[in-house]
Amino acid sequence: MLTHSSHGAEARIAFAAAAIGLLLIMLASIVPPDSGWAAIIVSYIPLHTLLETISIILALLVFTIIWSTRNKSLPRNLSIIALASLASGILDFSHLLSFPGMPDYITPNSTDKAILFWLAARLAMGTGLLASAFYAWHKPLNLLRSCFLLLFTLALLFTLHVLFLWYPGMLPAIYIDGQGPTAFKRNLEYLVMAVFFIAALGFSLHLRRPRLFNASGFFAASLLMAFGEMFFILYIDIHDTYSLTGHLYKIAGYFFLFRAIFSDTIKRPYDLLEQSRRRLDLTLCTLPDLLFEMSREGRYLQVYTPERAVLESPTPHLLGRSLYDVMPVESADIVQQAIDQAAESGNARTGPFSLEIASGSTDWFEVSVARLNNTPAPPSFLVISRNITDRYRAEQSLRTLSHAVEFNPLSIVVFDSQLRIQQVNQAFTRLTGYQEAEVLNRPPHFLHASGTSARQADTINREILQGSPWSGEIQGTHKDGNPFTIYLRVFPSRSPAGEITGFLSIAEDITDKKNYTILLEQLSRHDPLTGLPNRELLQQHFELFCADNNPVAVLWLDLDNFKEVNDALGHTTGDILLQQIAYRLRDNLYKNETIARISGDDFVILLTNATENHVIRRIQQLLELVVEPITLPGQVLSLTASVGIALWPADADSLGSLLQKAEIGKYKAKTAGRNSYQFYESQMQEMAGLRLAQSNALKTAIEHNELHLVYQPQVCLEQQRVIGVEALLRWDSQSWGSVPPCDFIPLAEASGMILSIGEWVLDSALARLRSWLDQGLPPVAMAVNISAIQFEHPGFTEQISQLLQRHQVPPHLLELELTEAMAMKKPDFSEQRIRHLHAMGVKLSIDDFGTGYSSLSYLKRFKIDKLKIDREFIADMDNDAGDQAIVTAIIQMARRLSITVLAEGVESARQAELLKRFGCSQIQGYYYSKPLPPEEAARYIVGYNPQA
Questions:
Q1: Where are the alpha helices (DSSP H) in 775-826?
Q2: Where would one find coiled-coil regions in this protein (predicted)?
């Protein structure tokens, strides 16, 4: 049988009792009734008395419990059960006293008499349960009717006692000694049993419904009493086992009846009260508020808040204490003022105040106070303290957000769903000039610039009203008529149902940014120093010129020796020089010509209709413009330029390729002597490729043993003996054979390889000199050329020292050759470095003297050991009086400064004779010997110095 969940454990107990009762019936029916009880009736009477007494007590307890609680509007069903229990208890009592073997109960006792009272008791109890099972439980029985029923029950009991005690003969026979119960008695027992079963069925139907009473207990009581009646149908003798078992079932039935009544009238109300109390506790636990009862003086009378963790002090510590005992004075004053106000007006509320709680953090609270009307005693007050920290902080955040919107530098506008302005901030007023009152409930059309068409404005509005975020640039007009540009972002706001309730717009004034963008675009396409177009804009001009399909000439103009001028005069003066040249070239361009600065002192000029004669004529004009003197702060300077030319479309299709080829032509023009121009030729590209390949191959020349040294003797004219050799570097490439030094030395300097190559040369030369000394050759000086990069390297002097020490070569046998330009480039640095080398004992000489910017004061300052006259002055000296004069002047000057002079490139006896006559100390050249391999050089030294 299915039961409603609210009957729960009660139903399970009831069904278990019914099952056990049915099982015991089955077991008892197997055992035959024992008629031997009649022989021991003396021992049965106490047992019977005990069993009946128990059932009488239970029945009367049921009545007492129900009748004592009838004023609590109990259902009338319980009143019926109470009266039935009363009748059953009284009749069972009379049955007990009428039982054979007991003292006569008013009239002589007999089995018939006892059974009559028994049957009346069972019928009364069964009728009461049956009525309760099918009667409506929700209807209470009023006091008057219940008293009437009690009187009726007592009257009925009196009538039955009179009938059973004095007029039993009026009733059919119930029990015949020796024969047992009569058929009439059995039929009555069947009737009683049926009444109990029907009552049990009625109560079982209540188990399918929500619980109104303990239907499962009444069901078990009815069913057990019905089972007991089965034994009273079966017994033969009132003392047999069936009779005893029937009494036990009756007691069990009364027990479940008592249990059900006790549960519904006493235990269940207390359980419901406890549940209500727990529910109240849980409710208080879930409330976010603290609840107290306090006196007028602010003392804690009750603490209703079960959640102790939120209290600063435990409840026992709060009771009887005042606000000032548990709270800071400022907070206690606020609450006490609210209590005082509630005493006058009945209720009060405080504003937010902060309070440090048990966790150590500071929370915000507000207090509501209500006066309790518990007169005549002094009034108390119900105090509700609410933690409003989240709300307070949310309000603060909202206030902060409101300030952030109001004082935001971006213009913020709130629109309604029809795009009418509802709110603006100060930035909007600054941007547009309109106050908030002037724009409320207006659409934003009046802000659009005059050039904005109505169709365009409507299109923007339609896109916004569709509900998707929108952004874009908008042209607007200030109240005073000045235009502005904003970048506008519009976001829809929606209700929880998803409907659009309005829009929020954020506008950034990008007027200045747009102007800056235009300026930056201008700067990004022009050279910042000269204002000329840069490479990007030059590309656009080139494409525009090419669109006419007329030949275009690309001129790469590079100033000659600008780096030296920049180093000598400073970068500021160099910048002024570049600006003057740029302005001069720009101002003298023809129509359909353009100029750009692409780097440093490099300018590119585009010429259209570029016939060869036209290009040559324009280049000559441009070179003449460059040569014109330029007035700089403190001096007047004149420069020259070299120009390379590439033609479109003859030389290349793209500007990049044309620039590359024009640059190659520029290098060719510089090589040819500067202040000239050179058209690009295909072999120039081949030479540039060759230089690149040789530069890459030179990086592995030392590793592949492609470099070697040769030695050219240096002869003293007076002694006619070899006093030194110059170590000369040679490169025998696996790919190109013997590469001239004039080709690969510049490549080494440009690629940075000159440092490693220079160190190799020094190491190899000193190693060779050490070898000659070890072979017994007379000591000779080893002259080695030094590049500017080597000379300026920070570790150069330390490198020389280490190499001399490694090879154990006397320092005075090492002679380092510097060019004039190298020494004069950084005079102060050169003087310091030469001083360090002199201190080590190393000799220094100036190579190619006379070809650079000579300065006699610097020669004196540097204390050079030797001057080498350049071969340019020696080559025509025997026929050219001018060269003779120059050579004579150099020699005389050097002798005055105590500097040794060596002439290079001596190739004839005439040249040697003249040099000896002029007083030259040493000569070097093919007249004596060409550069020799190491072994031949050693033999030459020995052969020329026989005395060694």
A1: 788-792, 796-807, 820-825
A2: none
Q: Hey, how many other C-beta atoms are within 10 angstroms of the C-beta on 130?
A: 23
472: enclosing H helix or E strand: strand 470-477
Domain boundaries, the chain: 8-28+41-271, 290-393, 407-515, 525-680, 695-944
Q: How far is CA 778 from the centre of its chain?
A: 81
Architecture of domain 525-680: 2-Layer Sandwich (3.30)
86-138 residue pLDDT tens: 898 899 888 888 888 788 888 888 888 888 888 888 888 888 888 888 876 65
The answer to whether domain 290-393 and domain 407-515 are alike in fold is yes
If you average pLDDT over every residue of the chain, what do you get?
Answer: 80
Q: Tell me what the mean pLDDT of segment 665-669 comes to.
A: 85
- Core vs surface per residue 508-527: b (16+ CB within 10 A) or e: bbbbeeeeeeeeeeeeeebb
Query: Each residue of 243-253: pLDDT tens digit?
Result: 777 778 788 77
Class of domain 695-944: alpha beta
**CATH number for the segment(s) 8-28+41-271:** 1.20.1070
414 has pLDDT over 50: yes
d(CA 171, CA 167): 8
CATH fold of 290-393 reads: Beta-Lactamase (3.30.450)
DSSP string, 628-672: S-EEETTEEE---EEEEEEEETTT-SSHHHHHHHHHHHHHHHHHT
Question: Would you identify the CATH topology of the domain 407-515?
Answer: Beta-Lactamase (3.30.450)
In order, the DSSP letters of 234-294 are: H-SSTTSHHHHHHHHHHHHHHHHHHHHHHIIIIIHHHHHHHHHHHHHHHHHHHSSEEEEEE
Distances (CA, A) of 811 to 429, 803, 830, 861: 85, 10, 19, 22
373-389 pLDDT tens trace: 766 677 888 888 887 77
According to DSSP, residue 447 is labeled G
Query: Between vectors from CA 689 to CA 612 and to CA 661, what angle results, nearest 5°?
Result: 25
* Residue 35, pLDDT score: 44
Q: Please compute the mean of the pLDDT values over residues 411-421 and round it to a whole number.
A: 86
